[in-house]
């Protein structure tokens, strides 16, 4: 038994929703994966520790993280999720309805940067923001979400290790460069207190001062 198996057995267990969503994504040949089970549990804990009530998610995919956020709210609060693909948005909303949290979730379809600008124009603010979308735009998303984050808000991003490709200097793909740039930017932003947790595929957690 390795460390990952030990943690999953003792602290997490199986998750039928994660399994079913992953199966559908695989059948549709959609390469991005849902967040890992350990990241999902960590996100739920962070919502409750922070007392978050208004959550923003950049990147919906199958809705697994969206649903976990909504469940962590315990019926009080809302999750706004941004997704570019209408079919994925519909799939995620259907999963949310099945999970009994559909009424707490609002999925906006469109380019995330445009949706973020719309949210700013609507004077919306959020106390927890999760970034898990196209890696090339992570730094742009960070700039945009800081503008609609409440004081002391948490800003969280998945895939910060990018399957450890961030350590490979020979990997100059756009996605890897995007993650490296994001990590350097968020680590050195004086407005934020930040740490990278080496769980899942790397989870960055920052607090807006």
From TrEMBL:
Keywords: Methyltransferase, S-adenosyl-L-methionine, Transferase
Transmembrane regions: none
Single GO biological process annotation from the record: methylation
One Pfam short name: Methyltransf_3
GO molecular function list: O-methyltransferase activity; S-adenosylmethionine-dependent methyltransferase activity
Protein name (Swiss-Prot/TrEMBL): Predicted O-methyltransferase YrrM
